[in-house]
Amino acid sequence: MFTGIDEVDWASLRHAYGSAADVPELLRGLAAEDPAVRAGALDGMYGAVHHQGRVYDATLACVPFLLALAAREEVAERGGLLELLISVGRDGGPGEAAVRAGAEVFAALVGDQDRDVRRAAAEAAVLFLGPPARVSRLLRQRIAVERDDRVLLALTEGLGLFVRWHPDHSTEALDLLLTLGTPPYDPGLRLAALGQLAGCAPELLPADLVPTVVGLLGERSERRRSDVRARDGVDCPDTLTGRLRRLRPSDEEGARLVRTLHTALGGRPSERITLLEGQLTCPDATDRCNGVWMAAGLFREWRGDHTALVALVGEQLGTDSGRLRDAASSVLGELFHLAAPAADHLYALVITRSDLWTQRWERGAPTLGSALKALAHSGDPRAAPVLADVLARPVVPDDLGRVIVHLGRSAAPLAPALRYRLGRVPLNSPGTADRAVPLLSALSALGDREAVPEVLRLVRGMPDGTRSGQRVVESALRALDVFGVDAEGVVPVLRGLLESDYAGVAAGALWSVEGDASAVLPSLLRELESPDGRLRQVAADVLARVGAPARVASDGLARMAGAECAQERVAGARALWRVTGDVPRVLPVLRSAWTGQPRVRGAVAACLVDMGTAGASLRDLVETELAAPRRHLARSGGHGSRDVLADEQLLAVCREVLAGGGDTCGGETAGGGATGDEER
Prior knowledge:
By secondary structure, this protein is an all-alpha fold.
């Protein structure tokens, strides 16, 4: 297994953390008798030798030894070694060449005694073994004699992969997939075959695909229940590990089968919705749980009227299964106002289960329960009294302030309790930022000017020199900016910060309070020349509010409008227009940023609302966006918890653009920007 390992000059090779001198020990550890040593060695291979999927010269040097280890029956857990080899060779380049050079090993391993080895070897053979006719024959021969259901699933997936990689040699593989998709084969195997056909030959799918799939899910569930009774009825312990387990499918094989189908139907959302409706009305809670997670993927990726599907997800909240209930409330929490069709179900759960209002995982701080959080995210005013009860408890979840911002004025009665909590946040504690920043966000959203003393306490009292302290002070200054009130002590504090690291945000708050351009321009001009792009953006945002009186900053803003960072370009362009009214210079910047970086489209659209008719030549971007069925941040298999919210906010602003959005910033100066008083 290790012949020649000492002849390799490992010290001269590199992996993610430098010299590869430690690699021989890792390789030998993969063959150790102690399972802990093997696990540590495999972690080391992924953590250093194949860090984040990268292939180093040390990675290539390991491939022959990994192949030799995978071929030896006395080595335990060889399936994991094959998965590592597949990962090394999958993305092409030198890694693929190295694995292909020893791919003959995979032909033998397809028939290995270890089922985990056989499962991984099927994929490896398709990816690296040749010629195609031989690989096709190998898969067909193995399917004819294989008796393990999980290996058969892997072989079926291998057939689909083979068709995609070798379409000119796919006839026999497609015929076999068609056969595997019909009785008397196991329902799970039939689902796998249909999923592969959907991905590589959708024209061969049956016309009644969705009812067929739903029926097969039911058959498969019946078999699961007869094999393992009450698998889903046993909830995981109330620990962080238990929660993570509940938020994964209990039937990961079934989840993979339906995920394959959903992925293959990716561009056909109407069929996916019909399939999800079938999944979410299955009698088996596990199938419904898988359906909830598949629905989350659809919501994140596709726009449209999801009312009926959201309501079906809401119905899962009434189940006795903690796993299914957690899945449904977690998914609904990502939908924000789109979860409104499920609000009654959320409220029913919240009002009957006060024990679910908060949750505390082992060694962790308490957080809001997912159902209460989802109800608040949806903007439902019924969440406010419940949050008031939570605020009255001795220990308050740190994330409570973040959900209040979505409740609007219905949360106004919570302001006194929020002020009370903010006034008692310790000034020098590791958790100060986590406690104070959400409270500041909530009070800002409520526009609670009575909170000025508590906010000033944080500005004056936070220790300097820590990232935590910086977060708190910046959030506090932004709150003063929102309040815009000349309360006792506010102006001296803000003026005293104009020469500090907080100059930009302090200037913004001072402008909001006084509206005196001469007081803030010197600091903003300095910030505009900062090497820190974030500080430049803060300054540009304030200069945009100042408008024409800030014309002296036009050269610096023009440089920002040509920056490499799209966010900085948009901030500079918006401020440049507000200050100078230079439409011809600004519009190409906005168009380029919109098309090149989807994440700045919301900021560009907001700028177009400000510009009114002056931005009319960019309305084609807005019209195209509103007509697009996919979300602008859609990522296949992504898990962006706020991507749906960002997309819905973009759509709302786009509609405002087309509706007219008002005149150019509500009034113009001679230079084309808004006056300071109007902006305030």
